[in-house]
Amino acid sequence: MEMYDLRSCTEETLQTVCGELGLKRFRAAQLFQWVQQKAVRSWDEIKNISTKDLTLLSSRLNFYPPELVTERRSIDGTRKYLFRLQDGEMIECVLMDYARELTRDRHTVCVSTQVGCAVGCAFCATGMEGFRRDLTIGEIVGQVLDVTHFIRQEDQDFQVTNVVFMGMGEPLLNYEQVLSAIMLMNQERGLNIGMRRMTISTSGVVPRIIQLAKDNPQVGLAISLHASNDLARSRLVPMNRRYPLAQLMEACQEYAKITRRRITFEVALTDDNANLGEAEALARLLKDHLGHVNLIPVNPVAGTDLKRPNLEKLKKFAHHLEVGGISVSLREERGADINAACGQLRRQWREGNHEPIDSI
Ligand code: SF4
Description:
Blueprint: E1 4-5, H1 11-20, H2 25-37, H3 51-57, E2 61-62, E3 67-73, E4 79-84, E5 90-97, E6 107-110, E7 114-116, H4 125-128, E8 131-134, H5 137-152, E9 162-165, H6 175-186, E10 198-202, H7 206-215, E11 220-224, H8 230-236, H9 239-242, H10 245-259, E12 263-269, H11 276-286, E13 291-297, H12 311-323, E14 328-330, H13 344-350
Parallel strand pairs: 1-2, 6-9, 9-10, 10-11, 11-12, 12-13, 13-14
Antiparallel strand pairs: 3-4, 4-5, 5-6, 7-8
The protein binds iron/sulfur cluster (SF4).
């Protein structure tokens, strides 16, 4: 008989399983809340369901929690987690915790959607290692549940408010799982994270951008743009060879037309490309788009010669975009002291170049 991963189950799936086991419907609601709202990782933590019923449920459902390999804490509050999945593969996820800053109350988790990545962006440690496999719905949602679980050991009221699909992998190449995970995290009796508080970041999988606009116009979209012309972009983001800028920009127009939502264009700035000419070219490329530019100074990645631009260069670049009529923000640097950029910690760990496991 089919065994289900509890963390991938909607309340409706649990109702079906309960029905098949001869259990009352309310058991499904209770179980769903324990798994998705209280973020438990084992049967032992469930308190209001009898041992007899739990034994019955465990004949069809199971937890497949990953092992927490390490947790790194940055001085700015960012935490980075390295998890080992059931098959031994390792993934990263990051909590960007803004709650301790006076003006904000935001806990954003950046999740992975694949083990490794086939896209191979020039600045990305994950891309350097190639693609291994897609993550399941339970493994995607599980990252948010596990962060919640571990932080609640220190802060019982902790609640993730935002999710960004910007970790390891190209989310739109694992489309079905990512969309199902979003629906699950949105459920009111579960994590209850608003659709508009979840953002998918893509390297530019054009057909999926249009499909996303039709399938889920509520969820946010970010494009890893990084360059204003095909030559430079194809070097940085190889997806551009398949879907060049003209096609990507057309898809963005279509997306905005359907959803009426503003797209975030992410631009990683290195010491090389943070110049006036590039700022002007970007402003020309984006001037008719419903969008916002997020400038990201690159974190240094071992194995690349990319250098981070200094603050003065960054500010000048942002200013030129604004003068060109583009809405722009400069992403704060977060977690640089803990290798928070995508794939860095996993890579370091696999190479055996790490410190002892940090306690939680
Ligand atoms: S930046 Fe994203 S899409 Fe590009 S290689 Fe890394 S994980 Fe893949």
